[in-house]
Each structure stands twice: as structure tokens, then as C-alpha cells.
Write a structure and sequence with these properties.
The complex is a heterodimer.
Chain A lengths: L1 H39 L31 H29 L2 H14 L1 H10 L3 H17 L24 H7 L7 E4 L3 E4 H11 L10 H17 L4 H7 L4 H18 L1
Antiparallel strand pairs in A: 1-2
Helix pairs in contact in A: 1-5, 2-8, 3-8, 4-5, 6-7, 6-10
Chain B lengths: L2 H18 L10 H17 L11 H9 L7 H9 L8 H22 L7 E10 L2 E9 L5 E11 L2 E9 L2 E2 H15 L2 H16 L7 H12 L7
The chains are: A mainly alpha, B alpha+beta.
Amino acid sequence: MGRSIVRVGLLAIGAFVLFCGVALAADDQAVLGKELAQIDNAYAPELWDASGKTPTGEPSVGTESIAPDSVPGWNRFWFQFNDKFYYYLFKPVAQGYGYVLPEKPRTWVDNFFHNLLFPMRFVNCLLQGQFRAAGVETSRFIGNTAFGFGGMSRFAYDLKPTQPTASGERDLGQTFGVWGIDNGTYLVWPFVGPSTVRDTFGYAGDYFMRPTTYLNPWYWSMGATAYEKLNNLSLRIGEYETLTESAIDPYTAVRDAYLRYRAQKVKE
Amino acid sequence: MPSAMKRVILSLVLGLSLTCALAAPALADAPLATVKEGVDKVIAVLQDPQYKGAKVIAGKQLEALRAVIKQYFDFTELTARAVGRPWLKFSPQQQKDLVDSFQELLEKTYLGKFEGYNGEKFDYQKEMAQGNLAFVQSQVTASDGKILAVNFRLIQKDGRWFIYDVIGEGISIMEIYRSQFAQELQNGSPDSLIGKVRQRVADIAAGKAVADEKAVLNDAAKQEQPTAAKQ
């Protein structure tokens, strides 16, 4: 009896070391890719020569080259709608929830849902040809699920103190981007928020890779998703406010931030 | 807003808050060293027991930080590059007015919202320099364990390096404002742009915009959970 416990323990440690190694090796690759992407846009082009009077090079570009805003009327309407929805319903509810439940358990819940989305990240890693990243995701999923209380602890993420992690966010819209599919127009959806034609199709595809989709009956599935969003927001209140308040046109600020962020994610 | 976007904003708030608040007279002569020195000293100021218990950075602490901003962060460069080519058509007075009001706006929103140092760890990766421009990459481990890419753009002036842009998760402050400025300049004039920025600052000062509820909420959470959530 005692010996079998020791054997199981050793086996577990062995498996653990193995996937830590995989995670480390794979991350090097991810870091390299990220660096290359950043060097590309490291230097802002010089706008004028040393005298500060004569323009040089191309004029600076906005986000039209990433995705045009072809339906500004629709987009601005739903942006306003989402903004009101956020301030009058979503945010107060999240705040109330935040008062009731301390930050730590909310972080656990957040980690749990992140861990649960593993299938989506894994499939998209594969579709993007990032096999090493897929390995890291798998290792982390196993590690966090088995030894991190079903994913509530992110300990497998903390194993490499100096190594940056491969991006935790992978989705089908990004995959389409990697394949060279254009964004189409910028679109804002009610409740969902900023998107593009490409990302909308991606979002729809990802729906099938979210485990919460398969909860039965439907209201459990919806409830789980709503709760995930609510819990996440309770940890992030203030960030949306900062972006929109600091803007002279909040709509444009959110649009540009979204498009540039997505473009960066595709480059990675 | 998708949760992905939140990472961007968090990293921008962190990056800009810390660099806006760079507070030290000692001058470093390399880009990475400049950033590191500044951030380290800001963290020291933020942790200064003198200001303990403050919910947000305000009063003396804010003044102390602002007084030395110009030593490290070049708001003029940031503003000029955000405006782009039309900057050359601004009169010197218009340039100055826009820089001043834009700086105030960024301070009020990013710095004013910053709740203080929560143990975020800066890990400087590398620096790249090309002529008088440089780029410094860092990775910030936030208090909740998330890793954010925070990069800095620097420019050399009079033998010194100044930070003029912060890039969080691929989005730079400069770029966020570029389209907004261009839009306003297309429909209006430099003066109307300055007016808009000033109006925004006034709105925030008047409390028309959202209050600092985040600080209050997080304080409540911290009283129950004294240690920052790390897992």
C-alpha cells in the first residue's frame, strides 16, 4: 500500500517535470515570434526632418488600413447602447457582486473559466500552426486541472519566472487573420461590443469550442457565460472608463484600440 | 467589451501611470537604463509610507510626481506625433496649448485613476536604438499574475533620452489619439481641437465623468483580503 502511493507520487512528479519542460521549450518559440512582431512596429516613422519644418515620408495612417468603418451609423448607435448598458446595468451588478465576494475567490473563478476555454485555445493554436504553443496550452491545462483545483489556481503559469507566456488569448478571428483573411468592415454588436466581419465569423465558430455552450438546458449555458463575464468585469472595473474618459471621441478611441490590438494579435 | 481588450487598457494604465510619474533627478544615458531608473523610482514614490492610506494619487503626492514629469516624459513629442503632419501648421501658441491640455487630460485620466502600486513586476527585455530613436521592451507581471507587454518609445534630445510613448499590448497612446486628432482637425481647426481637449478635462474635473469607484471597490476587497491575489 505504502509503496504504491510512492510509485503514484513519483509518476506524478515525472509527468509534471515533463510538461514543465515542454512548456519552457515552447515558450522560447513564442517569445521569438512576439519579438519579431514588435520590431516591425518599434519605430514610429519620422514625420519631419531635423529642422522640424519639412515633412518627410508618408503621412501617418489611421486604422482604415486595418479595417474601414463602413457603417458608422450602425456602429455608433450600438456603441452608445452598449455604453448605457454598461453603466446602468452591467457595471452596478458587477460592483454589487464585487462587494459581496472578495477579490481572491473572484480571481479563482476567473482562472477556472480561463482554464475551461482550453479547447478553443488548443484548436486555434493548431489551426495557426503553432504546435509548440498548443503543447504549452495542453501542459498548462493538465497541470492546472489536476494540481490546481480544477483550474482555480494558475500555478502552471507561474512556473517560469523570467519567461513570458505564450499569449493566453487565441480565437478563430485571429486564426482567420493568420490565414490572410481580411477584416472586412469594423462592426459593433449589441452586448458583444467591437468586432469586424472576420471576427464575427470567428466568434460564431468559437462558440462551438466553448465547453459552456454544451451545458443543458440552454439557460444554464447562458447563465454560465453571463456569470463568467460578470465575474471578469468585477475584476476589471475602471478600465473601460479610463479609455473612454481619456478620449475626446470615445467611439473612435475604442474602435482604434480594438483594431490595433487585434492586428497585433494576428502578427504574433 | 471583450475581455481581451481589458488587458490592453490595464497595461496602458500601468505603463503610462508609471512613466508619467517618473520622479528622479539622476539622469541615465541609455534608453533601457532611463526607463528602468524611472520606473524603479516611481515605485519607490508610490510605496512611500508618507502617502500611505491614500485611495488615489492626489494632493502632495500627485504634485510631487508631476513636478518632475518633464525630466523623463516628453509630452511635446507625444502630442506632435499624435497630431502628425498638421502639427507643422499649428502656431507656437497652439502647439503649447494643445500640449498643456493634452498632458492634463492624460494625467487626470490615467494617473488620477491609478490606485497605487500592487506589486507589479517589471521585467526589462531589451532595448533597440536607431539614430535618435529607441525602443525598450518590458514585460509586466500584474498583481493577478497576468503578463502584459509594455513597451516604450524614446527619443534622444540634447544627449538625454526621453520617453514619449507607451505601448501596452501592441497599442500605443500616440496611436489611440492619432485618429481622434485627425478627425477633429479634418472637421475643425487646431483651436477647436484644443477646445475639445479642454472641455474633456473640465468635464472630468466637474465630476461629470465617472467617479473613482474602482478605488473604493478595491479598497473594500483589500480590507477583507489583505494580500494581493496572486494565484
